[in-house]
Amino acid sequence: MERAFLSESSSRSSSNNTRLHDHSGSSVRLRANSRADIHVLEQLKVQRRNMTQVCKMCVKSLVDKSPFETITDDCPHLNNLCNVLEHIFLHRMQARWSIFSTTDPVHYWHIIQQYASSVTVGSIDDMENVSTELGKCRAWLRLSLVQKRLATFMDILVSKQHELKVAYMQGALMISAELQEVAGVLKCLDAIDFNLCLRDQDFDYYDKLEIDYSPYLVFHQNTSSRRDDRQEERRLLSTSSSIDSRGIDEEREEEKEEEEEVTSLKELLKVEREQKNYYEELVSVRDTQINQLQRELDSLGRESEKEKKEMSGIIIELQDQISKLQDSIRQQQKAGRRTNDNRRSGLFSSIFKSGDED
């Protein structure tokens, strides 16, 4: 796993961002043939890579933790993920100037209003504990995690790269290829059930959120490297009179550390097995649900076919009845015509007879 992704160049890159703006605050087009601009472009690439990698690590930490405990508001990995996503959304965003104020913090609420679900946006607007646009962004981010809609929203933004160029400056992560990578990683969060309480949270706080890199910057020295270090220490201490006793103590310490490492590996293996069993059980439950749904679908299909046959029989029966009624009507019409003809014939006969008598 990439651990040492936070270099000093990343911390210096924020100062280089000033070279991408003129005094009016508008963005300046970088030139690939300029040595200074090439350096700035490289620093922006480092920033995007850092944010992408730490986002992956935050998601992986949440996925690993979710089978064993509920993800709540006080989860440090959740808060760190939200901070990373906020950095991603705000990375090199164009400032939105207002005629009333020029000191408002940069936010991405207008992007959420344009591309997110109107129902979700309305829910955030109705929250009484959120008043600023940046606070609404933070509340929406957590609500999207609860509703499992964040990955879908990011997919929409991936398809709107051309429109987003109006809101972001050159080199922003939101208009780069890394956005698709981030959107793919966030799909893993759809399998997590977040238990977050948004009504009691204060999101209108200081607009600068820092990413906690410390959980992902731990250096793990392997056993061979530690053994080499101890041998080097013994060689340096070989001139000492107490080298024998120190060597024994160091050997005991080495054995103790190896035992601790074995114990740690056993615990890690136990966790991995428990996680494997959980996923197998989850897959089994999903298979059972799928089989149940398939059986219900087959049953509905059979019932549908049965109803089709019954309806076909009813239609045929109705057609027969209609044919019989039509035949009966035609026969009645013929009988009526014959009766009328007979009446007319009798009438003519009586007229002729009365004429002959006269």
Helix fraction bin = 55-70%
Largest sheet: none
Shape: elongated
CATH class annotation of the domain at 8-216: Mainly Alpha
- Number of helical stretches of at least 4 residues: 11
Radius of gyration: 40 Å
How many β-strand stretches?
0
Write down the secondary-structure element order. Answer: HHHHHHHHHHH
CATH-defined topology of the domain at 8-216: Methane Monooxygenase Hydroxylase, Chain G, domain 1
CATH architecture descriptor of the domain at 8-216? Up-down Bundle
Class per helix and strand makeup: mainly alpha
Q: Ranges with pLDDT <50 over ≥5 residues? A: 1-27
How far do the termini sit from each other? 130 Å
Percentage of residues in DSSP E strands: under 5%
Overall mean pLDDT: 80
> What's the CATH superfamily of the domain at 8-216, by name?
RUN domain
Biased composition (Acidic residues): 250-262
Keywords: Coiled coil
Organism: Amphimedon queenslandica
Family: Belongs to the RUNDC3 family.
